[in-house]
Amino acid sequence: MRKVSLLLAALLCWPGFAEAAELQIASQGYLFAGGRYVSGPDGRYLSGQAYVEYQIPARRTHPFPIVMIEGGGQSGSNFTGTPDGREGWAQFFLGEGYAVYVMDQPGRGRSALRPEYGETVQRAAEWVQQQFTAPERSKLWPQAARHTQWPGSGGAGDPVFDQFYAEQLPAVSSFPKQQELNRDAGAALLDRIGPAILLTHSQSGAFGWPIADARPNLVKAIAAVEPSGPPVHDAVFKGAPDWFADGPLTKPWGLTAVPLSYDGIKSADELRFEQQEKADAPDRMRCWRQQQPARQLSNLRNIPIAIFSSEASYHASYDHCTAQFLAQAGVKNSFIRLADRGIRGNGHMMMLEKNNLEIARVIADWINQTVH
After folding, report:
1. Please, which residues have CB within 8 angstroms of residue 161's CB and are 6 or more apart in sequence?
2. Per-residue pLDDT tens for 267-326?
3. Which of 111, 202, 310, 313 is catalytic?
4. What are phi and psi of 314, to 5 degrees?
5. How far apart are CA 307 and CA 319, in angstroms?
6. Residue 261, class by beta-carbon neighbours within 10 Å (0-12 exposed, 13-18 middle, 19+ buried)?
7. Of 328, 292, 349, which Cα lies nearest the Cα of 131?
């Protein structure tokens, strides 16, 4: 293959490019994973395919690539840089010797949006500020006031926010359809590239479980960065003093709206859930879990899984529920609160925040210790 020498920092317009080390890329390109032909009024159309760009370093030190899947309303650009021009997680892991595949969800970014995907939704700038870039102003959840790591004011008109908001995209509205599309595209990608590590974030956390369920022998680990949650019911954030309420039951399979393989059942109607009487701490939600005896997630139980949760995100109030749900279903996992590692002040979009590479190091350390 033709070897291309890329100076990462220059590529990203990083101010410190003169001091950056050179990264040798052995191969780079793109592919489309999955998809099938569907009938239209004047012929056939391809539907369900996902755009995936990849880079493979010349100094590849890890046998399994990392597949990065973005969260709601985002694109793969979440991982290939930051809105203020710093290195992203894709570049970090390339520098660590991993092949990196960055996916755009079907219907998002460079993956075609098809009418059979249904309606789409896009979030207003005010919602993005409240949830992602400046939650400390709204204080809708107890941890929000601790947010300090966004690189800028976090409001519309600030150049960094405007760059971030410019990449927000319409997203398929149907929660089950999102998971169906991404499960199938993700499984097709693994069929093509072989065993890999999944790195999911937010909405795509609900895709990692069914991809692994469909291809348990091809998923070597899941690094779930604040994965879609909490289990069973959505969360509603109300501000002080009550803070939390349960939203609709959107995850009839506990972690997903699409089927997962539980021992001994064929329908989500056979699962029984209950809620904790008392939360684990005053700033956390009461978790939903299975009634005993809990059904076991047979295809996930042998896959290493870690859940990474930041200090100030809305996920700080419920990511522990996801970890507990998995453990109860027989899936051992590592629950890593970044604040416990001395990494403070992060919100939900931690891959873009000022200390994003410190967080990438925590993820890389877990993978290096776990996946062999």
Report:
1. 83, 125, 129, 133, 152, 153, 154, 155
2. 999 999 999 999 999 999 999 999 999 999 999 999 999 999 999 999 999 999 999 999
3. 202
4. -60, -25
5. 8
6. middle
7. 349
Per the confidence metrics, is the pTM higher than 0.90? yes
Clarify whether 202 is annotated catalytic. Answer: yes
